[in-house]
């Protein structure tokens, strides 16, 4: 993420997306759209803040607070989702508040307005795609464990870079309840590997074949051990079979975890 004012050159607009050509690449942002969101929800004079979500926040559907207008709340969440096309920094926070669209309360609206305050502070942020000959794909995978207090499911997050360019990203609640941090990280890493395989095939079609294994970075040693060698099979056989998909591609050296 870089500020728009660091770029100069040709500017183009399409459906709220601003594309600016620079001698070292192109800068893509939605500054105008972000300003429209702030104005629409009467937060254009709000107090700026430098993080989109409160640290270690725990939201719930059953907090017993005053109900808010679901139509207004859904409109706000939808605006954030479109803005996340160029703002991966708000993706997790947007996914978090989108879980409560049916019956939003004052706490949920407060969390949503925090994102608006964050946009106020980072209004000119966007993505810079530099001109480079480095087509090496690298992925980063992470998860929380039992982050949703209502159903105790974890959240998967990953981001892929090609050289120094952010290529694709995701933040999504996992479909199963995991029984340990190792399993939560393993599910997240497998999702990341599935995406890596798709990207490798796409890049091959575009003539940018990945000659070396795609590196997937995770932050759990037990997950790496489980992915590389099923020595804990008896202890982890409860993990859904589809999540052992990762081992096949590690053995084929299409991906590597570290």
UniProtKB/TrEMBL annotation:
SUPFAM superfamilies cross-referenced by the UniProt entry: DNA/RNA polymerases
InterPro entries assigned: DNA/RNA_pol_sf (IPR043502)
UniProt cross-references to CDD domains, sorted A to Z: RNase_HI_RT_Ty1
PANTHER family named in the record: CYSTEINE-RICH RLK (RECEPTOR-LIKE PROTEIN KINASE) 8, GAG-POL-RELATED RETROTRANSPOSON
Record protein name field: Reverse transcriptase Ty1/copia-type domain-containing protein
Lineage per the UniProt record: Eukaryota, Viridiplantae, Streptophyta, Embryophyta, Tracheophyta
């Amino acid at each position: 993420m870089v500020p728009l004012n660091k770029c100069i050159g040709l500017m183009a607009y399409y459906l709220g997306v601003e594309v600016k050509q620079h001698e070292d690449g192109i800068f893509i942002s939605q500054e105008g759209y972000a300003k429209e969101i702030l104005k629409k929800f009467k937060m254009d004079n709000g107090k700026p803040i430098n993080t989109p979500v409160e640290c270690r926040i725990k939201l719930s559907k059953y907090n017993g607070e005053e109900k808010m207008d679901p139509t207004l709340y859904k409109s706000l969440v939808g605006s954030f989702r479109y803005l996340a096309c160029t703002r991966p920094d708000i993706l997790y926070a947007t996914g978090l508040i989108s879980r409560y669209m049916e019956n939003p309360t004052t706490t949920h609206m407060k969390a949503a307005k925090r994102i608006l305050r964050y946009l106020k502070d980072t209004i000119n942020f966007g993505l810079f795609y530099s001109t480079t000959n480095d087509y090496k794909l690298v992925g980063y995978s992470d998860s929380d464990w039992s982050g949703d207090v209502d159903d105790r499911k974890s959240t998967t997050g990953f981001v892929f870079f090609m050289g120094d360019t952010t290529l694709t990203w995701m933040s999504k609640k996992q479909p199963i309840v995991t029984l340990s941090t190792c399993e939560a990280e393993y599910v997240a890493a497998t999702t990341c590997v599935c995406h890596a395989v798709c990207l490798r095939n796409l890049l091959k079609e575009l003539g940018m074949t990945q000659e070396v294994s795609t590196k997937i970075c995770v932050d759990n040693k037990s997950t790496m051990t489980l992915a590389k060698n099923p020595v804990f099979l008896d202890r982890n056989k409860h993990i859904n079979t589809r999540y052992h998909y990762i081992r096949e591609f590690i053995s084929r050296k299409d991906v590597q975890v570290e």
